[in-house]
C-alpha cells in the first residue's frame, strides 16, 4: 500500500504552473545552447543536460546545441604524443592538431546525437562544414599566428532551418572552412554566438563552470541574477570581471545587440540548470537582456 503526501504533490503542480507562461512564450522559438565544460565530462551531468534539451524540444521550443570538446581534444592530442598548447585561451592548432580536433569533435557530436535519439527525439549532428554553414577567416592571438583557429565571418543558416523545419534537433560542432576550404577550429562560444545571431534566436544559453556573472569576481556572494547590456558594459569597464568571463560577456552583449532577446550564463555543474533557468521566474544563473527589454514574468507563485 502506498500513501500520498499531498503537500509534496501540490509542490509539483506549482512547478508546472510556474513553467506555463514560459512554455507559451517560447513556443516555436529558437534557443541556442552552448554546451561545454564539466557538464560535458561528467556522464551523469551529461545525461541531465540532454534530458533538459530534449524536454525543451518536446514542449515546443526549437533548441540547437553548439558544443565544444576541449578536454577530450587535449586528451587525444596527448595520446598522440603531442603537448596541447594554448595562447590567450585559444588552442594553438597546427595541421595534426586540427586533424585530431576534427575527429574528436565529430565523435563527441555523434555521442550527443545518440543520447538525444535514445530519449526519443530526432537529432542531426553536423559541423559548420555541412551546408557551408560556417565560413571563417584566420584568427590571430594578439598578432601571433596560432594555426588553424578561425573567426566566423559568415553563417549560412539554410541547413539549420531545413533541419528545424523537419523537426530535427541540430547538434553542431564548431568547425568551419576558410575561402580555400581548409578546415578551421572555432572557439565554441564564438560559434554559438554567431549562430544565435544568424538564426535570430530568442535565447542563447551558455553552460559554463561558473555560477554566473559576479559583481566582483573576488566576492562569490555577489552573483548577479539579471543584467542589462548597459550594466554589463559598466561592469566590463569597472575591471572587476574575472578573466575568463570577459570574452563571454562581450559575446553576450554582441548577441543581444544583434537581435537575441536574452542570454543566460549558467553553471553547468548544477543538475538541470537549463530547466531551472528557463522554466522558473528567478532562474539560477545570470540573465542578460537588452536595455528596456520586457521584464520577466511575475506570476506571483
Ligand atoms: N537569472 C535569471 N534572473 N533568470 C530569469 C529567467 C526567467 C525566465 N525563465 C527566462 O528564461 O527568460
Automatic annotation (TrEMBL):
Name the catalysed reactions: N-acetyl-L-glutamate + ATP = N-acetyl-L-glutamyl 5-phosphate + ADP
Transmembrane: present as a keyword of the record? Answer: no
- UniProt protein name: Acetylglutamate kinase
Gene3D superfamilies per UniProt: Acetylglutamate kinase-like
Looking at the record, the residues that make up the Aspartate/glutamate/uridylate kinase domain are 29-267
Task: Describe the function of this protein.
Answer: Catalyzes the ATP-dependent phosphorylation of N-acetyl-L-glutamate.
Q: What class of enzyme is it?
A: transferase
Pathway noted in the entry: Amino-acid biosynthesis; L-arginine biosynthesis; N(2)-acetyl-L-ornithine from L-glutamate: step 2/4
Subcellular location(s) of the protein: Cytoplasm
Site annotation (Transition state stabilizer) points to 34, 248
Membrane-spanning segments: none
**Annotated coiled-coil segments of the chain:** none
Its Enzyme Commission number(s) read: 2.7.2.8
Asked if the record carries the keyword Kinase, the reply is yes
Keyword terms, alphabetized: Amino-acid biosynthesis, Arginine biosynthesis, ATP-binding, Cytoplasm, Kinase, Nucleotide-binding, Transferase
One MF annotation (Gene Ontology) recorded for this entry? acetylglutamate kinase activity
Where is substrate bound in this sequence?
Answer: 69-70, 91, 185
Q: Per its UniProt record, what InterPro entries does this chain match?
A: AceGlu_kinase-like_sf (IPR036393), AcgluKinase_fam (IPR004662), ArgB (IPR037528), Asp/Glu/Uridylate_kinase (IPR001048), Glu/AcGlu_kinase (IPR001057), NAGK-C (IPR041727)
- Family to which this protein belongs: Belongs to the acetylglutamate kinase family. ArgB subfamily.
